[in-house]
Design a protein that fits this description.
By secondary structure, the chain is an alpha+beta fold. The protein has 3 helices and 7 strands, in the order βββββαβαβα. Strands 1, 2, 3, 4, 5, 6 and 7 form a 7-stranded mixed sheet that branches. The chain starts with 36 loop residues before the first strand and ends in a 17-residue tail after the last helix.
């Protein structure tokens, strides 16, 4: 038997390559809003909730809050709470990827959150079960509790030092 070598049909590839335009802007697809959360005062159950906190050794703890605009266009701080641990852990993992601080998940009762909201002028929103919310991509550099601790410890400036010389007009 003889074998013949036959050329295989090869599809023709264009010689010019068009580079795809890639958008580098990252936005949160599922933000915390009225459709996927409810206010703490609207919740009727007394189960423990999960919140995200920040803790540094020998310092006070800080509660994670999101700053958003209310209906009047004024900024308000909103503590975010979850009903189950899995949703809170998913959000914490995404948050740790965005921030340079390590966060922790803690239990909080309705009474504790209500007390913190009254004294700190916060609102609290409880994320519904099974809803995927992502943290905002822009975070503040110096948190309120870091600013407060710096002032209590006698450091009157909480801004990072700028080594560049001043610019003259």
């Amino acid at each position: 038997m003889f074998a013949l070598r036959a050329p295989l049909p090869v599809p023709r590839v264009p010689t010019t390559y068009k580079r795809r335009k890639v958008s580098r802007v990252c936005k949160s697809y599922y933000t915390i809003d009225e459709q996927n959360t409810q206010l703490l005062s609207e919740s009727d159950s007394n189960e423990l909730l999960h919140i995200i906190t920040f803790h540094q050794p020998n310092e006070e703890e800080g509660i994670y809050a999101v700053r958003k605009l209310n209906s009047d266009g004024l900024p308000e701080n909103c503590i975010v709470a979850w009903r189950n641990f899995d949703d809170a852990f998913r959000y914490k993992t995404l948050l740790d990827a965005e921030m340079k601080r390590s966060s922790y998940i803690q239990f909080a009762s309705h009474y504790e959150l209500d007390f913190a909201c009254e004294h700190g002028n916060y609102t609290c929103r409880i994320v519904d079960n099974g809803v995927l919310v992502t943290p905002p991509t822009e975070t503040i550099k110096t948190t309120d509790w870091e600013r407060r601790n710096a002032l209590l410890n006698g450091r009157w400036s909480v801004r990072e030092k700028d080594d560049s010389p001043p610019e003259w007009p």
